[in-house]
Amino acid sequence: MAAASEPVDSGALWGPARPEPPPTRFHWVHGDNIRVDPSGTRATRVKSFAHGVCFSREPLAPGQVFLVEIEEKELGWCGHLRLGLTALDPASLAPVPEFSLPDLVNLGHTWVFAITRHHNRVPREGRPEAEAAAPSRPPTLLVEPYLRIEQFRIPRDRLVGRSRPGLYSHLLDQLYELNVLPPTARRSRLGVLFCPRPDGTADMHIIINGEDMGPSARGLPAAQPLYAVVDVFASTKSVRLVQLEYGLPSLQTLCRLVIQRSMVHRLAIDGLHLPKELKDFCKYE
Where is this region: Disordered (predicted)? Predict the structure, then answer.
């Protein structure tokens, strides 16, 4: 029987007294049809459409985004990626449930949703349901470098999916930036995080290509370890983790942004007199 993890302190926010969280990795406990690569950053369902539930290796810190990019799709199945959080320790799950919905959720202490454009959005008690109808897209979506979710400020650059390098990648990239593609399109980036509240609970938020879809669940136990849940389900075949920088951007990131903004499209990066490693970093990240 799965058991909820022991309480931990989650009151402190990012700052000088609290270092950035370690890189995210997939847990070694996962569904029977999942294969995780040696780096722990790529999860692939190797057969069927189910038994694809994965977890984060460590509990998330408040405001930390567990961000995945959809790498491969598989035709012939109905359904897509599912994402959420659980207070269950993955190591206590034997066996891992076949589905996150409803099997894992039915174990309790778990909040998982199928990714859709009209995402589950929970209004605050006493406020009109119209508040939950749709997330509001800020007019500064394309220029504001940070995504603000409650008390957290998250660099937007890595949150947005990018097309494969090509002659028209600069046009396709805009579709990801505007978040007009299907949310589970190949190379879309999807993230989950939780934000503690003064009453000791937390709100769960899901991010689709740099856009906060609003609180998907409220009342999560902020004092307990919360693990990310990724269900590589049906038409979603493979996902990879994308790492974020929460503090000041690195020199490597700043160089990449300058180079990308100076190019019409990413294939032009090949003509620059730069090391191959840096050119690849600018083209694919």
Answer: 1-20
One-letter amino acid for residue 88 of the chain? L
The overall pTM is greater than 0.85: no
H-state helical runs in 59-126: 105-106
**Separation between Cα atoms, residue 156 and residue 175, nearest integer Å:** 15
Q: Encode pLDDT of 267-277 as tens digits.
A: 777 778 888 87
68: domain CATH number? Answer: 2.60.120.920
- Domain span including residue 183: 26-120+140-245
- Class of residue 197 by CB neighbours under 10 A (exposed 0-12, middle 13-18, buried 19+): middle
User: Which residue, chain included where needed, has tokens 């990239």?
Assistant: 173
Cis peptide before 95 (omega within 30 of 0): yes
Tell me the per-residue pLDDT of 169-180, one tens digit each, with 9 for 90 and over. 777 777 888 888
Sign of CA dihedral 82, 201, 25, 53: negative
Q: Do residue 98 and residue 186 come from a single domain?
A: yes
Tell me the C-alpha distance between 221 and 196, whole Å: 9
237 versus 117: the higher-pLDDT residue is 237
